[in-house]
Amino acid sequence: MYAYNRGSAAYDISRFDTDENAVRKPRENSASNIKVHKTSVAKTGNWFKTVVFVAFAAMLAFAVVGSKAAISEVCAQISDQNQRLEEAQSENIRLQSKLDGMVTLSRVEDVAVNQLGLQKTTKNQVHYISVYDRTMVQVAEKDENVFETLMDWIDGTAEYLGF
Fold first, then answer.
1. Residue 9 within a domain
2. Which of 98, 90, 93 has the alpha carbon at shortest distance from 82?
């Protein structure tokens, strides 16, 4: 690669002054203006900062790994619970269909006839009764005296109050 001169010694801008009253300054020795920078060397006095930084980085790494492990464990628990939920739902569907099959009319008739020994009614078992006309109403008269009415009122009040 090419080596470049990074100093300002090649450009003397004072030569290009157009002011007539400008006094030409004598050239200074460019060697005296050069400052040598010390190379950066690792300082041995910063070992405490390094230890603290490494400890902080290690704690941060452990925290991240620990949180990932906790998240993984919770996800496993969630999937296990979801699987149990699906099993319970399928069991519920199975039991519901079994219950629906047990409540059919033919099943009720079968249990009534075979297990309980019941029979369907026949014509000779049916007795019809005659009822008065719907327009006729009979009301029985009360044969109560004042004391019975008073006792009924007291009993009703006590029952209402919860005694």
1. no
2. 90
Do 109 and 119 form a contact (C-beta atoms < 8 A)?
Answer: no
Contact between 106 and 112 (Cβ < 8 Å) = no
Q: What is the 8-class DSSP label of residue 41?
A: -
7: in domain: no
DSSP 1: -
Dihedral, CA atoms, 78, 81, 86, 90, nearest 10 degrees? Answer: 180
Residue 59 lies in a domain: yes
Do residues 38 and 48 lie in contact, with contact meaning Cβ atoms separated by under 8 Å? no
Instruction: Please identify every stretch of the chain with a pLDDT value under 70, giving residue numbers as ranges.
Output: 1-45, 132-134, 136
Asked if residue 79 belongs to a domain, the reply is yes
DSSP 121-147: --GGG--------TT----PPP---HH
Residue 83's domain comprises: 50-116
Total domain count for the chain? 1
114-131 pLDDT, tens digit each: 999 988 888 888 888 877
Q: How far apart are CA 54 and CA 47, in angstroms?
A: 10
Contact 7, 30 (CB under 8 A): yes
User: Is the whole model's pTM more than 0.70, yes or no?
Assistant: no
